[in-house]
Every structure is written in structure tokens, then in C-alpha cells.
Design a protein that fits this description.
Layout (H helix, E strand, L loop, with lengths): L1 E4 L3 H12 L4 E5 L24 H12 L4 E5 L8 H6 L3 E4 L4 H14 L2 E8 L2 E8 L7 H4 L3 H4 L8 H11 L1
Parallel strand pairs: 1-2, 1-4, 2-3, 4-5
Antiparallel strand pairs: 5-6
Helix pairs in contact: 1-2, 1-7
Length: 171
């Protein structure tokens, strides 16, 4: 199965495409509620989902699209206490957060467990992406972290087509 951490525009798009492609199990980790101003960036969700947990609402939408896949809402925030057990339950990890601490936690857990880690984010009309097939002998996110500020644009706003493109690439 695939663990997707962060169900903002990129994570929701990746989840949609992975479910549509028939991935058997998706763990959708996000502790946040959907805000109305996020709807233009997350066409997978609808106005009646506003104020509800993104993970639960997205699981419901994905099940309606593909009831053969298992979609698990994980209403949690990744932290040092839960990251190892969380990553251990899946074969592949997608980090779709915009939180540096979470990037580092997921990176370290994936390195320790030799799990593939994919990351993506958006800024304006651009997106950045990193793919790490991790083991203790290979490069990891920590090796690239100092180059990322160059890739992460300071462009204002986010565009839905950039999020969709990043999500499709991750899937």
C-alpha cells in the first residue's frame, strides 16, 4: 500500500490518481479540516466537505470512485512518536506536506526501513519533486535539503493545475 502524508492540493490529487489506477490500499494521513478557500485547489472534495476532516472526506470520495481499493483515513499529525510505526505499515511513502520537520521525520523513517519516499510541493505555477529509494547506503532527502530553497519558489499563490500536475507525477 501507499501512505500519503498531507492531503492538500498535491496529496489529494495523488490520492485520486492512485485510487483510480487501482492501488489496493491507500493510507491518507492528515489531521486538518477542509477550509472553503481550499476548494479551488482540491476538486476531489466538495462544498459539503467544508469543516470536515480532509482524510475522511477524501476517503469517502475515493471509495465512490473505486470501491475495490481500501482507503484508510489517518487523522494524525506525524511526529517522532508515531512515524516509525506509520511508515512500517506501507510499502511506499508520499510526502505531500509543506512542513520541513515532517519531511525530515519521514525521510529518516524511510531510510531506517529502506522504503521509497517521494515528495512534491507547489508554488505559483510551478512544482518541485524529489524521489528517494532509500537505504542507509543511498542519498536521501537530507542530502538535497540545502538545494531545495532554490527549487521552492517564493511565487505568491498556488494554481490548481500545478497541484494536479504534481499529484499525477507522484502517482
Amino acid at each position: 500500500g501507499v501512505l500519503i502524508v498531507g492531503l492538500g492540493p498535491v496529496g489529494a490529487a495523488a490520492a485520486q490518481w492512485l485510487s483510480a489506477c487501482g492501488v489496493g490500499m491507500l493510507g491518507l494521513a492528515d489531521h486538518g479540516l477542509l477550509h472553503e478557500n481550499a476548494l479551488p485547489l482540491q476538486p476531489q472534495l466538495q462544498i459539503q466537505d467544508v469543516g470536515k476532516y480532509k482524510a475522511k472526506s477524501l476517503c469517502s470520495r475515493l471509495w465512490a470512485m473505486n470501491p475495490m481499493s481500501k482507503h484508510y483515513p489517518l487523522l494524525l499529525q506525524v511526529n517522532p512518536e508515531n512515524v516509525l510505526s506509520l511508515v512500517n505499515s506501507f510499502e511506499i511513502v508520499l510526502d505531500c506536506t509543506d512542513d520541513e520537520a515532517v519531511h525530515l521525520l519521514l525521510n529518516d523513517a524511510c531510510v531506517l526501513q529502506s522504503k521509497p519516499l517521494l515528495m512534491a510541493g507547489i508554488a505559483g505555477t510551478s512544482f518541485w519533486m524529489g524521489q528517494f529509494v532509500l537505504s542507509l547506503q543511498q542519498a536521501s532527502y537530507r542530502c538535497a535539503v540545502y538545494d531545495l530553497p532554490k527549487m521552492r519558489s517564493s511565487l505568491p499563490g498556488r494554481w490548481s493545475f500545478a497541484a494536479g500536475s504534481a499529484g499525477i507525477r507522484l502517482a
